[in-house]
TrEMBL record:
The keyword Kinase applies. It comes from Mycena albidolilacea. Pfam families: Pkinase (PF00069). PANTHER family: SERINE/THREONINE-PROTEIN KINASE TNNI3K-RELATED. Residues 1-185 form the Protein kinase domain. One of its GO terms (molecular function) is protein serine/threonine kinase activity. InterPro entries: Kinase-like_dom_sf, Prot_kinase_dom, Ser/Thr_kinase_AS, Ser/Thr_Kinases-Pseudokinases. This is Kinase-like domain-containing protein.
Length: 185
């Protein structure tokens, strides 16, 4: 939770969920306080409002991500469920629990997040040559954003008639690729 507070409290942008503070004593654990977004995440919003401007939502998420990257921050778990929609229909990125600040000690996170949105290079095997595994980067955030954008614009379902997880696992190669064979994010 400390890392999430550290990253989240440093960002102020219309396309990022505002951080109000921490509330202690209401529950067993401290609670992070932010505004409530009644429309929920982009996926829920688009089910309720299928005619919503999907491009504007995608551009809003891209704008929020660009701001994070301009501050040398990586989200680390960008997906449809981590983009809320505010009362004006604007996309707002949330959930900074896996976020990190580039080149700051204590913020080197190994590959974690939502498998269906992970860049291919995050699936490297831990071995003697790579003892800590793959690391999230701005490029892996952009890869995740690409999948989010495809899902938000309904392109994945239309093209492949399946959810992004199904599409992802169908596309995984049966055998691993060598580092030099893998396209970068």
């Amino acid at each position: 939770m400390e890392r999430e507070v550290q990253v989240w409290s440093q960002v102020k942008h219309p396309n990022l969920l505002p951080f109000f503070g921490i509330c202690k004593g209401l529950a067993q654990w401290p609670v992070l306080v932010s505004p409530f977004y009644e429309f929920g995440h982009v996926g829920e919003y688009l089910k309720k409002f299928p005619e919503a401007d999907r491009q504007a939502l995608t551009v809003g998420a891209a704008t929020g991500l660009a701001y994070l990257h301009s501050r040398e921050m990586i989200h680390g778990d960008l997906k449809v469920q981590n983009v809320l929609v505010d009362a004006s229909g604007r996309a707002v990125i949330c959930d900074f629990g896996l976020s990190k600040i580039i080149d700051q000690s204590g913020y080197t996170t190994s590959c974690v997040g939502t498998v269906a949105y992970m860049a291919p290079e995050l699936f490297t095997v831990l071995d003697n040559d790579n003892p800590r595994g793959a690391r999230t980067t701005k490029a892996t955030d952009v890869y995740s954003f690409g999948l989010l954008g495809l899902e938000a614009t309904d392109f994945l379902r239309t093209l492949l008639d399946g959810d992004s997880s199904t599409v992802f696992f169908r596309s995984m190669p049966r055998s691993g690729l060598n580092e030099d064979q893998r396209p970068p994010s």
